[in-house]
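[Discussion] Sanity-checking designs against the backbone

I'm trying to build intuition for which residues belong where. Below is a structure token string of 308 positions. I'd appreciate it if someone posts a full sequence so I can compare it with mine line by line.
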């Protein structure tokens, strides 16, 4: 997917990364926040703290009935995230791990999961110490090597969990190549990409063949270290329906105030990621030039990211 810069930057300002689609900043500010949805015509979505919503009649609600099942402030955030991910659907969860748990609950005992061998510690802990106790069969593979990933795909594999760049060693995975390999083995395997480190600004996994894109929004998507939240996006209606059911049934929902804060954070995502990148690239180049430094691990100087 070709992406044009929104800014007049030097040609090499984003060497190694592509910036987001042209209207990214505009959509981050406006999608899901149309004033016409409110009688007050508010340009900023209000924080809807009500737990219960009046119905026109028994079972005849106006879009909302109970805040765990759906909330106006949360819906605004979910629409915005879907637009930035190039997704039809997005759901907000109570944390990144809540998103992981919700996704995993689509499976049943005996199903297999293949997980990237280098992932966030909380993800590793959940798969190693909790998912296995629920009867899920979890194996780990270095997804940067397609042959190792292919060797772990079994008849019962139902989900592959990819994190790229990985936390903490910044391994870079070819999402498209892995997705193609996995779906060739079994088109029904769900490919999940943890996009926390890149954010929707620098990487859109759904455009690279993934079935689900998830985040710990606690990091860059919110960007202000004042919210714990998870996000899940997909283009598949069947996955969205199941995930939405689980979001409600498991109760892993964020508060309306947290949704308001993340929605506000998205409005500066493009500015923040630009600055993060420039600072990181300057640091990487400085370290590369130092003879005392043997190796610099930074995805911005990894050629594979030109593809994403």
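Best answer:
Here's mine. Compare freely.
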């Amino acid at each position: 997917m070709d992406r044009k810069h929104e800014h007049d930057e030097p040609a090499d300002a984003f060497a190694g990364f592509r910036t987001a689609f042209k209207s990214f900043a505009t959509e981050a500010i406006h999608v899901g926040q149309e004033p016409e949805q409110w009688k007050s015509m508010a340009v900023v979505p209000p924080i809807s703290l009500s737990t219960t919503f009046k119905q026109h009649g028994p079972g005849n609600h106006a879009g909302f009935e109970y805040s765990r099942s759906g909330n106006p402030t949360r819906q605004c955030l979910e629409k915005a995230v879907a637009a930035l991910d190039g997704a039809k659907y997005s759901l907000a969860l109570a944390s990144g791990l809540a998103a992981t748990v919700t996704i995993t609950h689509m499976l049943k005992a005996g199903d297999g999961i293949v997980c990237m061998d280098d992932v966030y510690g909380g993800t590793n802990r959940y798969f190693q110490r909790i998912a296995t106790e629920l009867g899920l069969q979890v194996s780990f593979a270095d997804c940067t090597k397609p042959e190792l990933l292919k060797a772990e795909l079994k008849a019962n594999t139902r989900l592959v969990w990819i994190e790229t760049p990985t936390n903490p060693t910044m391994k870079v995975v070819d999402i498209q190549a892995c997705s193609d390999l996995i779906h060739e083995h079994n088109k029904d395997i769900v490919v999940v990409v943890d996009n926390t480190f890149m954010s929707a600004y620098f990487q859109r996994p759904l455009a690279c063949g993934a079935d689900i894109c998830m985040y710990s929004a606690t990091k860059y998507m919110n960007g202000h270290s004042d919210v714990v939240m998870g996000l899940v996006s997909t283009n598949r209606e069947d996955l969205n329906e199941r995930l939405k059911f689980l979001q409600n049934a498991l109760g892993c929902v964020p508060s309306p105030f947290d949704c308001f804060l993340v929605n506000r954070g998205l409005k500066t995502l493009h500015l923040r990621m630009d600055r993060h990148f420039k600072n990181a690239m300057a640091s990487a180049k400085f370290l590369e030039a130092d003879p005392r430094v043997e190796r610099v691990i930074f995805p911005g100087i990894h050629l594979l990211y030109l593809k994403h």
